[in-house]
């Protein structure tokens, strides 16, 4: 039989059906009627036999577990973040940036997990700003538009001020986000400018978190790290800081996977 891993955040619910280290079914949902969402996931995917349900996330304790006839366990979110980040990246230790509505930074070293802090800049920031300034309607539209945008119409960069090399600073380094906003900037330009700004903030936060630590591997998880241009933003930060970013497969389900893996490791 399989296990349900459910990550109930402040704005979305991530659910996976997991068996023998394989995700059989998965989904991301919005809403606060958690039991109905879980039931619909089971019905839609024709899931009749599960061994247990593992819950994590800020709203995990709001689920009425009494209605389920199988074992239901709740896993502490930061431990699930650390475990899921290491599991998917296949690393023994790393700083995990869990990007939900905001961003939490977890130092994961084996089975030890420490919350380093975080920032209110995250997916909620990006989606709200894109909705306000580019009239986007969905996450998929943000991805599509960001692939078409030109940062040259948005950001002020070193290359805009000088042709000379400035020590170790690359010419594409941002001096001011939206510091060169052109009147001709398109909707796509604005979206990629917002994506770049959000991930520069998150990337720099994680780089600063690693300054006084021997851990230089940083793993990013969460739904918005699946935006393709994110990797280009992170490469710029790698050039100026002694860090290595990893975006693993299935990053949006890392916390749900981590909750299952943590429980299985402790059994």
Outline of the structure:
36% of the residues lie in helices and 25% in strands.
Please provide a written account of the structure.
- The chain is an alpha/beta fold and 267 residues long.
- Helix content is 36%, strand content 25%.
- The protein contains 8 helices and 12 strands.
- The chain has helices at residues 34-44, 77-89, 123-134, 139-146, 158-161, 187-209, 230-240, 254-266; strands at residues 2-8, 13-19, 22-29, 50-56, 71-74, 93-99, 103-109, 112-119, 156-157, 174-176, 217-221, 244-246.
- The strands form 3 sheets. The chain has a 5-stranded mixed beta sheet with strand order 3-2-1-4-5, with helices on both faces.
- α3 (123-134) packs antiparallel against α6 and α4 (139-146) crosses α6 (187-209).
Keywords:
267 residues; alpha/beta; five-stranded mixed β-sheet; 12 strands; 36% helix; globular
Write the layout of secondary structure elements.
Elements: E1 2-8, E2 13-19, E3 22-29, H1 34-44, E4 50-56, E5 71-74, H2 77-89, E6 93-99, E7 103-109, E8 112-119, H3 123-134, H4 139-146, E9 156-157, H5 158-161, E10 174-176, H6 187-209, E11 217-221, H7 230-240, E12 244-246, H8 254-266
Parallel strand pairs: 1-4, 4-5, 6-11, 11-12
Antiparallel strand pairs: 1-2, 2-3, 6-7, 7-8, 9-10
Helix pairs in contact: 2-8, 3-6, 4-6, 6-7
């Amino acid at each position: 039989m399989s296990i349900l891993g459910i990550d109930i955040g402040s704005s979305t619910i991530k659910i996976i059906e997991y068996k023998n280290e394989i995700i059989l079914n998965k989904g991301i949902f919005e809403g606060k009627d958690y039991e109905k969402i879980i039931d619909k996931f089971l019905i839609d995917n024709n899931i009749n036999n599960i061994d247990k349900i593992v819950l994590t996330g800020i709203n995990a304790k709001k689920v009425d577990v009494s209605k389920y006839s199988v074992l239901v366990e709740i896993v502490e979110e930061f431990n699930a973040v650390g475990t899921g980040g290491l599991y998917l990246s296949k690393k023994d230790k790393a700083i995990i940036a869990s990007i939900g509505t905001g961003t939490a930074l977890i130092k994961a070293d084996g089975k030890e997990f420490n919350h380093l802090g975080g920032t209110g800049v995250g997916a909620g920031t990006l989606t709200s700003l894109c909705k306000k300034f580019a009239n986007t309607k969905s996450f998929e539209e943000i991805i599509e538009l960001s692939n078409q945008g030109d940062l040259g119409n948005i950001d002020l960069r070193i290359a805009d001020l000088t042709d000379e090399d400035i020590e170790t600073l690359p010419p594409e380094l941002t001096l001011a986000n939206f510091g060169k906003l052109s009147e001709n900037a398109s909707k796509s330009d604005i979206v990629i400018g917002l994506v770049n700004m959000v991930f520069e903030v998150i990337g720099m936060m994680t780089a600063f978190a690693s300054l006084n630590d021997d851990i230089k591997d940083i793993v990013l998880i969460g739904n918005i790290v699946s935006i393709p241009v994110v990797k280009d933003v992170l490469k710029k930060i790698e050039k100026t800081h002694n860090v290595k970013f990893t975006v693993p497969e299935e990053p949006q389900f890392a916390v749900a996977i981590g909750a299952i893996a943590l429980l299985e490791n402790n059994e």
